[in-house]
Amino acid sequence: MRVFVAGASGAIGTRLVPQLIDRGHEVIGTFRSPGKAEHLRALGAQAIALDLLDAGAVRTAVLDAKPDAIVHQATALADARFGRNLDRTFAPTNRLRIEGTDALLAAAGETGVRRFVAQSFANYRYAREGGPVKTENDPLDPAPPATTRETAAAMRHLDEAVTAAGGIALRYGGFYAAANDGLVKPVRKRRFPIIGDGGGILSWVHLEDAAAATVLALEHDGAGIYNIVDDEPAPMCEWLPVLANALGAKTPRHIPLWLARLVGGKDITLLTEARGASNAKAKRELGWAPRYPSWRRGFSAAYASSTLTDGRSTADLDPRTGYSPS
Ligand SMILES: NC(=O)c1ccc[n+]([C@@H]2O[C@H](COP(=O)([O-])OP(=O)(O)OC[C@H]3O[C@@H](n4cnc5c(N)ncnc54)[C@H](OP(=O)(O)O)[C@@H]3O)[C@@H](O)[C@H]2O)c1
To answer: Are 292 and 298 contacting, i.e. CB atoms less than 8 angstroms apart?
Structure first.
């Protein structure tokens, strides 16, 4: 297939492009920041500059490219500052999820593109009640905290618009293994504490696994929503110390919820009440199996800078066992 990847130069896009090419697909990849074209070409894609918020330019780019499939992986979170108001941080990304999605879908409709896959998110979205792990059929939070409502609405728009058009929305877990992962610096500096009892649950996914699921979704018939997360949704009190250890950082501090609310605003309870996501549907229907089934191995494979005594990187270890495959 000729695959048009919007946001090909980003954290997941740069993992996705080589995997698509390995599967025999041809890739037209878009970037926005100057200087990214070279990297995309080196990965084997045809590189085009595109602002997804310019609907006319999106239409022209898609018409010119004549793709069989479109993947939307554009977000604007690089160097994002997370303060008391999540909607402020996510405002440019929310526009990409609403206006960017609509522009791509319109162009897809006009050119008869058969397959459409877009990036959505699994964490902090499911209703904060009942069991700890949610499937795609479970209800979304009906009353997201006030400072997160626009962000929740943008993701809901993307999910609904894409599936209504016959496409697939992938609700990824928290990405890790990119050079610009947002948590790395604060965890290294011991500025990311365990809040309250640390019971809020998160689902993670290694970027290589997220990209592999995306390829499978593109090759899958029919509309749908899929959680793309690893096998082990876990509370913050479990994953954060393991992440700190993988990063060579000191053990994270604990702060009581009242203090976290004072500093981070009352909506920080989203972190302590969050539910995780199940990947059963993606495994069953897409035939996806994560190479890193748990962040326990994944974090150390992604971040350990250490080199083994025989010269190999820890990233070469078997992700399931932590032992060398050879
Ligand atoms: N599920 C998750 O946990 C999740 C989701 C999203 C992002 N993140 C993380 O956040 C960090 C920063 O991410 P990021 O959002 O900057 O994503 P990124 O993955 O670095 O980049 C996203 C892509 O969107 C493109 N883009 C941005 N604005 C655009 C626009 N107006 N029109 C067209 N394309 C546009 C970027 O182009 P250029 O490269 O040319 O700027 C890039 O190709 C990464 O570590 C990433 O892993 C995590």
So the answer is: yes
